[in-house]
Design a protein that fits this description.
Distance between the termini: 88 Å
Helix content: 10-25%
Radius of gyration: 28 Å
Strand order of the largest sheet: 1-2-4-5-3-6-8-7
Structural class: alpha+beta
Largest sheet: 8 strands, mixed
Number of helices: 9
Number of strands: 8
Length: about 450
């Protein structure tokens, strides 16, 4: 059959399909439509499951809520097509042009996108469980809140991709280029990010527990309040921001860090969760740091509680380096939070704010400070409720301050009862048993 005959056959099939669709038929399962031109056509709710559309032109077509399960679309062009809410599970999109395609809320389980062009595509809220996305180009694509669990992204180009709130747990992201990607609150549990390029990536609040970050490039990445419990992490990610990043003994052990490395991470602002689970010699070494304030709560200090404490700390001491959390230990429904404060005055102001619940009269300013500088705009935390809960469960405060006669130290010692002299410092403490009732 020559080219003219082939073209005529395809024109006939196109006319037949469109006529049948206009008459109300939606089922075209298994049709052979290789090379067909359906660009700009409106084919919403169409059923093309197991159909063959290899090399087809579907540019700007509207196929919302369509069924394309197990369809063959390799080398086809679907740029700017609308397949939102479509079921494309197990379909073949290898080497397909999907630039600007709309796949929002689509079902794409085990779908093969290998080598597909997916620049500026939309996969928000899509379910892509187990999909194959090897070597795709998804630069500037949006995949917010998508289910990308167990997806194979190896070798993919995803620069400036938006993955905010997406679930990428157990995904293979080796050698993936995620430069400047927006990944705040992304779930990356047990994800393989070996040799991935995360330069400038926003990983604020991301869950990287048990992830593999071996040889990953994290230059300029923002890991503020990220969770790397049990993750394999390079010892030196000096260019990255690790303030309030959460790590555990499992991180320390799996990453084969030295105690000096752990100490250096803590000094850069990382928070050690379940501090007491560290080996005794490591505990002794890390404790040589600048911890001079411990607050004991008769409730656990959750991640949201830590965010609330950070908000209060930032509110009373805008320079984030002056007051910071060093570790959090939760055990049997109780918690101990260790802080570094630069001087007795900061200890006094912070503990007084927490004990006296000063946010009741300064709520708007505190919440504004949180919105301006805290974790992320993508996930909100009721910091007032969290602070109220923690403040109501304080049962002990312990501070270590220099032995001095300056006014600020005297003022703090008047509030807290002297307890013990340790070297050149006085350990002072306060118990809720003797605290006057706080008026609300």
């Amino acid at each position: 059959m020559n080219c003219a005959d082939t073209g005529a056959v395809m024109q006939d099939k196109r006319a037949m399909l469109l006529k049948s669709y206009e008459e109300g038929n939606r089922e075209f399962c298994g049709w052979q439509l290789d090379g067909i031109d359906l660009s700009n056509c409106i084919l919403d709710d169409i059923d093309l499951s197991r159909a063959s559309l290899v090399g087809a032109n579907l540019r700007s077509a509207s196929m919302k809520s369509s069924i394309l399960t197990e369809a063959k679309l390799s080398q086809a062009s679907l740029s700017r097509a609308n397949l939102s809410k479509a079921d494309i599970s197990r379909a073949d999109f290898t080497n397909t042009d999907l630039v600007g395609i709309d796949l929002r809320k689509s079902l794409a389980r085990a779908t093969n996108f290998t080598h597909a062009l997916m620049l500026r595509s939309r996969l928000d809220d899509a379910d892509c469980l187990g999909a194959i996305m090897i070597d795709i180009n998804a630069t500037a694509a949006r995949m917010e809140s998508a289910n990308l669990e167990c997806v194979d992204f190896s070798g993919a180009a995803m620069m400036n991709c938006v993955l905010t709130g997406a679930s990428c747990s157990w995904a293979n992201m080796t050698d993936t280029r995620l430069n400047w990607a927006q990944m705040s609150w992304c779930k990356l549990e047990a994800a393989d990010l070996e040799q991935a390029n995360l330069t400038g990536a926003n990983l604020r609040g991301a869950n990287l527990s048990f992830a593999n970050l071996d040889q990953a490039i994290l230059t300029g990445a923002d890991l503020y309040f990220a969770n790397i419990s049990g993750a394999l992490v390079p010892a030196d990610i000096q260019p990255a921001r690790v303030a309030s990043l959460r790590l555990t003994n499992q991180t320390f052990t799996r990453s084969n860090w030295s105690k000096k490395t752990l100490y250096e991470w803590q000094q850069r602002g990382a928070i050690i969760i379940d501090f007491e689970s560290l080996p005794r010699d490591v505990l002794t070494y890390v404790r040589k740091g600048e911890c001079n304030l411990r607050i004991y709560f008769s409730t656990t200090c959750s991640p949201n509680g830590q965010v609330a404490l950070e908000a209060l700390m930032t509110h009373i001491s805008p320079d984030a380096d002056t007051l910071r959390i060093l570790s959090v230990s939760n055990d049997a429904g109780k918690s101990v939070v260790a802080f570094y404060a630069p001087n007795p005055h900061t200890i006094d102001v912070f503990t007084s704010a927490l004990r006296n619940k000063t946010w009741t009269s300064d709520r708007e300013a505190l919440e504004q400070r949180y919105r301006d500088s805290c974790v992320t705009r993508e996930k909100s935390v009721d910091i007032i409720a969290e602070l109220e809960n923690l403040a109501s469960h304080i049962f002990h405060i312990q501070a270590l301050v220099p032995i001095a006669n300056d006014d600020k130290t005297k003022q703090l010692q008047m509030r807290l009862d002297p307890c013990e002299i340790i070297g050149d410092k006085a350990q002072i403490s306060w118990s809720s048993v003797s605290l006057p009732k706080v008026s609300r």
